[in-house]
Amino acid sequence: MNPEDLLKLVTTEMPFGKHKGVLIADLPGNYLNWFAREGFPKGELGRLLALMQEMDHNGLRDLLRPLRGSVRGRD
What we know:
Distance between the termini: 26 Å
Low-confidence stretches: none
Oligomer: single chain
Structural class: mainly alpha
Number of helices: 4
Largest sheet: none
Radius of gyration: 12 Å
Order of helices and strands: HHHH
């Protein structure tokens, strides 16, 4: 994992599907688990979804909270 990936989780929106436009960090666990079962997309999006699924599965979503504040502070 690259540290910049954590920032991408709170800034990258899901580009398609039922949750199009939702930040990857805000995707529901059941949606992330569906990807884990069915297969993640190729490329960076799949890598980020897999990382978020792992964080959600292990109860680590709160680690992203400080990054959300730093993103808002950039505006």
